[in-house]
Specification:
By secondary structure, the chain is α/β, with parallel strands linked by helices. The chain has helices at about 15-25, 40-50, 65-70, 90-100, 110-120, 125; strands at about 5-10, 30-35, 50-55, 80-85, 100-105.
Amino acid sequence: MGSIRTFLVDDSPEFLESAAGFLALQPAIQVVGRACSAQDALEQVPRLRPDLVLMDWAMPGMTGLEATRTLKTLPGSPRIIILTIYDIPKYRTEARVAGADGFISKPDFVVQLPPLIQHLFSDSAAG
């Protein structure tokens, strides 16, 4: 498996910085861009063509779910993992319906993200 080109979307500059720092320690991950809004992500993702987008659920203006729905209509759309502070079943269901490939609560980010990425990009899941 080559480097997984990853794009981060969150309205918190602090979270973007800490997530990018954590991902920099993961040998299979390359952060190719960041956006502070869903709208900004919709402009950058088609140009950068990442393999994976880590998308915050709640942002001012357009939500991460709306952006996920839009990105999933693109040819060769990236895999998308929704991130939120609130890990509740309703949110998980809504993320799945929007087309998200995964869902992680921010408090569990460091523990849950590496195995989820490995699962999403394993040979069996890539087909």
